[in-house]
Amino acid sequence: MEVGLITGIVIGGLSGWLAGKLMDLRFGILMNIVIGMIGAVLANAIFDRAGIHVASGWLGYLVQGFVGSCILLFVAKLVRR
């Protein structure tokens, strides 16, 4: 399912914000949106390769964005040190 640009930004921002809260890192709302959107794309590629199917629609995109954002924030935390 294709997610529209505005929906992608909102869900990406939400998933980035949630991941930031979980990982206890704050990069600001703009960076959270970017990390959430990139994280969703990253997690989508990882899940497709592994054959893992997450819920479809905006919920699936949110879960994938959250997982991908957590991965990106973990890497950012390592690099920041």
TrEMBL record:
The keyword Transferase does not apply. The chain crosses the membrane at residues 27-47, 59-79. Keywords: Cell membrane, Membrane, Transmembrane, Transmembrane helix. It is a multi-pass membrane protein. It comes from the Bacteria. InterPro entries: Transgly_assoc (IPR007341). It is found in: Cell membrane. Pfam families: Transgly_assoc. GO terms for cellular component: plasma membrane. Its main location: membrane. Belongs to the UPF0410 family. PANTHER family: UPF0410 PROTEIN YMGE. This is Uncharacterized membrane protein YeaQ/YmgE (Transglycosylase-associated protein family). It comes from Rhizobium subbaraonis. The lineage of its organism: Bacteria, Pseudomonadati, Pseudomonadota, Alphaproteobacteria, Hyphomicrobiales.
